[in-house]
Design goal:
By secondary structure, the chain is mainly α. The chain has one domain. Helix content is about 75%, strand content about 5%. It has a two-stranded antiparallel ribbon. Helix 2 runs antiparallel to helix 6. The protein is globular, with a radius of gyration of 19 Å.
């Protein structure tokens, strides 16, 4: 029979593994980060990633307080959240579909003699970038159900709330770090040069992805 500490470690490893698979799967968060890298640059993408990470805490709070179960079993509440999330993703997707080729894209040599793309990117405040990530993750009803399942199936009823909150903090930090790392990698000069060259194409593609995700929320 496992001791309490062994049980908690097993829970944590299971949660970390399931979360890694979930966060690595392409979804609205990935689309938003890629869109931010292309249109706003590394700084905005990183703050959006922080927002995505902190958005996790909303779902953790729902799960620990039992509100996720209430949302799931109350059709009106669940549908409000569902359509709000779908509408938000649809709105962002439509804006992305309107992306136009940048007339200011210039391929110029950088300090290392390598070609780099100088594209003027839209201005976005730290708060706007953070809010975009936070709302995108926080409104995702599938994430709510994911964390409800995680905390009701993987976490034992005997696990105290302090440990549960500890799991939640880990999930938020791990999610934020994942997307911050992704932001940094995607904004690498060589990768960014390629992304900027096809900026409007990728932006429109991400718009299609976001719209498809919006419809999938309400149809499936």
């Amino acid at each position: 029979m496992l001791s309490m500490s062994e049980t908690l470690w097993l829970e944590f490893i299971t949660i970390a593994g399931v979360h890694l698979i979930a966060v690595a799967s392409p979804g609205p968060d990935f689309a938003i980060v890629l869109k931010q890298v292309i249109n706003q640059g590394r700084r905005a993408a990183i703050f959006s990633s922080v927002g995505i990470g902190l958005g996790i805490m909303l779902h953790v709070m729902y799960s620990i307080l039992g509100l996720s179960l209430l949302i799931k079993n109350t059709p009106v509440l669940y549908n409000i959240m569902l359509y709000a999330a779908a509408g938000y993703l649809f709105y962002i997707g439509v804006l992305a579909l309107r992306s136009q080729p940048s007339e200011s894209a210039v391929i110029a040599p950088n300090d290392n003699g390598l070609a780099s793309s100088s594209v003027s990117k839209d201005e976005q405040s730290i708060w706007q970038a953070f809010r975009l990530g936070f709302v995108t993750n926080g409104l995702n009803p599938k994430a709510t159900l994911f964390f409800l399942s995680l905390f009701s199936v993987v976490v034992a009823p005997t696990t105290n709330d302090a440990v549960r909150w500890g799991y939640g903090v880990y999930l938020a930090v791990a999610t934020g770090l994942w997307f911050v790392t992704l932001s940094i990698l995607l904004s690498n000069s060589h990768i960014d040069q390629y992304l900027q060259r096809y900026r409007h194409v990728i932006d429109r593609l991400m718009g299609v992805v976001l719209i498809v995700l919006a419809f999938s929320l309400v149809l499936f």
